[in-house]
Amino acid sequence: MKKQYKNAKFFLTFLALFTVIFTSSLSLLSFQLPVAIAQNNTKAEADRLRQQGEKQLEAGQYTQGTESLEQAMMIYRRIRDTESAKNIVDRLYLIYYTRGAYDKLKKLQPIFTELNPNAEQTKTELEPQVTEEKEKSAPQFELNPQVEELIAQGFLQQSKQDYVGAKAYFEQAFSQAKAIGKEPEKIAALKALGTFYLYQGDYINALANLEPAEHLSAARYQATEKESASGDIQKMSNYFLEILYHRLPILFLIGETYLQQKNPSKALTYFQEADKIVSKIDKDYKNSFQFYNSKFVYSSLYTSRAYYSLGKYDLALSHARKAIEEAKSPNNFTNPFGDLLTSPVLDLGDGHGHVLAGIALEKLGKLEQAEKELRQAIQIFETNRKTSASQANIHNNLDLFDNQVRATYHLQRVLLAQNKSEEALAASEWGRGRILVEAATAPRELTLKEKVDAFVDTQYTSESICKEQESLHPEVNVPKGMEHIFVSSKFECDGEALIQELKKSYLEEAQKSPEMLDYLTATTPTNTAPSNIQPLKVEQLKQIAQSHQATIVEYSIISETTFFHPGYLSLVNYGVNRNAFPGEEKKLVIWVIKPTGEIKFRQIDLKNQKIPIKDLVTNTRKTMGLDRSIGVFLKPDAELPDGSTRNASEVQAKEKLKQLHELLIEPIADLLPSNPEAKVVFVPHKELFLVPFAALIDSKEKYLIEKHTIITAPSIQALDVTRQKRQKQTGKSKFAVVVGNPTMPTIKLPNNQSPTQLNNLPGAEREGKEVAQLLNAEFLTGNKATKAEVLKQLPNARYIHLATHGLLEDFASFGIPGAVALAPSNQDNGLLTSSEIQELNLQAELAVLSACDTGGGNITGDGVVGLSRALIVAGVPSIVVSLWSVPDAPTAELMGEFYRNFQERKLDKAQALRQAMLETMKTHPNLVDWAGFTLIGQSK
Fold first, then answer.
1. How far apart, in whole angstroms, are the C-alpha atoms of residue 146 and residue 139?
2. pLDDT tens, position by position, 57-93
3. DSSP code string of 389-404
4. What is the pLDDT of residue 120?
5. Rounded to an integer, what is the distance from CA 353 to the centroid of its chain?
6. What CA–CA distance (Å, rounded) separates 430 from 440?
7. Structure confidence by residue, pLDDT tens digits, 376-407
8. Which residue, 904, 886, 883, 891, is CA-closest to 765?
9. With contact defined as beta carbons under 8 Å apart, do 355 and 347 qualify?
10. CA distance 226 to 236
């Protein structure tokens, strides 16, 4: 029953061995704290920091809590309190691994090894002892550590979108492999390079590396297969490992390459070869090697995709059904480490099988059956995600959610084909913002018992726990005539009693061991407890529009792709394929919900578009002089991907804004309110989150902000969550936190540049001073605006205004990009990160991030992951953020006007921002100067 925790100590040892794939040249590393070390190197100070960190962790503040523990650990090491240092390092190791903080894990690795000398000894003991004679007869699967580390570093850089760095690591690995001269290293390096090029869309170079890898792996497969026939355990192990890590992945990757090249016939030959291997394993080794005895349902899934691309939908359906049945096998990929090592995507193919069955049925004209299959797939994906043991790892959580997102595209298409446009809107909502609303509605400030209870309730129902127990007690076949000797073998189960027993057991473990708390909270996106919020039904969507008395416009860009994210390949390739092969954009669907609750929709066929929406948005921003990645202005004559250049007269920018208006607004113009003060809430999708809706231009040269009062939201459900947050606020406090031009911190920019102090912002100081006067608040600037002081004041603030630099990088290493620059102190580096913000419990009704690109972040299936999302999760219902690097002086004017409208003229937030834009437009007509801000959430 306690499978999730019983291997925890072994798990830490395993991590020490496993982490080698994330660490390179560890002997050259020294642990660097991200914060300043307290000068008081005494045990009392270390104990204080440790207690502080443990309280922060208990409150779900893992970003600050781990920093406190790091400081305590360093002091313990200095005073040679090895036992205390080791306890903290063990805990940090578990936290960083389960939450995907691999950069922090890498820095911690040398200290972990230093304090856990038995880990290296354990590694030696676990490694097979190979004699020279055995080396000749049984080639060992183990790779050269240097090659393995280089490959792992390459995948890590690729997952961080550092493609230049990733390629360099892979090429180094191949050079090293050639120097060593052994086949396993060459195969691994070629496979890594081929995978890199495949996900970059360079299919020629992908095949140039994967095909030589396939020839080498075929020879090794035949050799290990022949040797395994002897029954020798080591030889059989080599055979299975060769298949698991090389033979099947390479066949799948080559097949995938040909699929993306629109050559499904060629792809099918590789998938069928993989299927032969899988069938042979299933036949010859069905009851052997339980860890390796997966049916590898992915061969059936890949084969289904190939037949679908060939237009052979009956065969595609047949193989999809086969995958669904194979996934039900109880022997399918049993994990020896229990749930502690749950894969990011390990639904074993049943969800994917239902998706492929659904789209095959759609092509066969059986729309109702297709709808049923797709709904089942989405439910499977959501259930697997919400019961995953790694939800606090945002990367893994998004991996899990992305399959659900893609399935909803297919469901929307099938529903629209049945004229179920309202249900298609509900399906669109089912595939966006789910992780966000779950994080924003997760209960906070729970007792340890409440956290344990919530965890168990998420993992089990009475039915599921009994089913698990029954699998551990197989029914005994009693010989005929001997029934009187045997006690009845019928399984009986009281599920509720088992759940209560499990809760009690977990609570006892958690009270004894803080690591248990870290593991339990890793199952939630907020380090607290799971949320029970459910997807919205059509009637609920209508009620939200009515309650807001607003017109809601939701966009959905429907792509067509059969690609899924298989857990098997993710395990082998470290999960770098989440955003691969999004598919061709087929339709743009726009729903409009009127304040009465009436729903209308429009469809636009994107096949007739001259340029994909993503490129249109990118080019629009670049003609405006913006670069999304670094938030700076391009030179006036910088050439764009479509051949145009930035023009000082803004002619090209305006032309592209007209194109966006034509695509996004004109199809629904007749459904929008004629009153310019009536609210219109835009719910963007994908790259549309980067569109400055206020600046879209109609055929009469009118900006959209001149005709409508604009709000944006990540999803309709997120909009409703912010309304509920606002309703719970009392509004009694008038306290405001206002920051302008703090003493700037020094940061290390990307690409290993030297640390640089951020530029001074005199305009932000003037802005902050005026805002502080309007809000009757203390003005924090220079050395007064420290991160420590701001964090101290934030929980009590009704209004938050931060006029400073905004940054897009993930400085906290917990997977949520974005930071606000504040003054550093001897306690911290001055960067208030998105990870820290979302762990706060804020009562503010409004937060204004008057900084560069604060509305930016990673665009995912769940929306934009960045600062704005963090504030919603922390409890703020109304957020004003920027869509680009806003100019200093015009922004100061706009913000002053916004607060005068809001405070003195008593306009609501949306109307106040609209009027501020219109007023600023008069003195600063360049749209970059006035159109950069958007209100997310509530206007009142």
1. 19
2. 888 889 999 999 999 999 999 999 999 999 999 899 8
3. TTTTSHHHHHHHHHHH
4. 52
5. 23
6. 16
7. 999 998 888 887 777 788 887 887 888 899 99
8. 891
9. no
10. 10
